[in-house]
Amino acid sequence: MKGRRRAIAVLTALGACVFALAGCSGETTEEPIRTSTIVLAADGSFTQCRVEDFEREDYQLGELDDMIRQEVQDYVGGVAEEGQPVAVEQVSSLEENSTRVMVALHFADSEVYKDYRAQVDKQPCELFYGTVQAALAAGYDLAGVLQDERKGMPISSEQLAKISENRVLIFEEALQIRCPSKVLYVSGNVQITGAGYVDGTEGEGLKYVVIK
Length: 212
Prior knowledge:
The structure is a single chain. The longest helix has 16 residues, at 61-76. A 7-stranded mixed beta sheet has the order 5-6-4-3-10-13-12. It has a 5-stranded antiparallel beta sheet with strand order 7-9-14-11-8. Strands 1-2 form a two-stranded antiparallel sheet. It contains 5 helices and 14 strands. The protein is of the alpha+beta class and 212 residues long. A hairpin with a 6-residue loop joins β5 and β6. The chain has one domain.
């Protein structure tokens, strides 16, 4: 079997994985994920669903599943079980397109995610998911980038002070985001779509999403 780097380059998809949750628009949504997506949970954890092309002449799906599970097991230092910082949720082909596959990994928090991406994927990235207060303490300039999702107006210092305990996602990768509750504020380089998720696949630089 060829190396991990080749496997990830060859893998860009997600399967018959269906997430039923409150969408970013505040309405309940249930539909398959078809592009790389982060599904946020209210407790600060989240699931990364990576969707990529899969060349079956190079790999079998079972081999990819075994490889991903071994990587996670090596990272956590033992059998990857529920309650550990990283867990495999799914490795499957798309129901409507067997040439694409999804790898869904659950991360306890954003620090674990960044460490895993750097140590295992060898792809350091910027991602923060925590309270607004913690983001400000970490040096993020939220007042300079956030705007009201409905009105498109920049957030005021008074509004920022009122949402100190709300969670904010800050990311730079090309991803769509599914939220556990309604979106309150976003940066100008993301969009909320009719399907009820935040589209961050086109914008450049850091992207910001504050949820209720």
